[in-house]
Amino acid sequence: MKGKLFSLFMLALLIGFNACQQESMKEIELDAAQKALLKGAESDWVYVDANEFYFTYANMSVEFCGEKMYFPFYSSADVDVFNDGEFLYVKVGGIDGWVINYLSVNIWSAAGTDIYAGDYESYPYQIDFDKAPVAIFKIPYNEEWGVCFKLAIKVYANRYNDDGSIEFKWWWVTADNILYGINYELDFCWKDCDYECEPFRTQTPGGWGAPASGNNPGMYRDLNFDNAFPNGLVVGGDYTLTLTSAAAVEAFLPSGGKPLPLMQDYIDPNSKTLKNTFAGHVVALTLSTVFDAYDENFSAANEDLGDLIIADGSVFDGMTVQDILDEANVVLGGGASSYSVSQLSELLTKINEYYVDGEWTGDGSLFDDCWNYEVE
Question: Which residues, in sequence order, are bridge partners of residue 242?
Answer without folding.
Answer: 234, 267
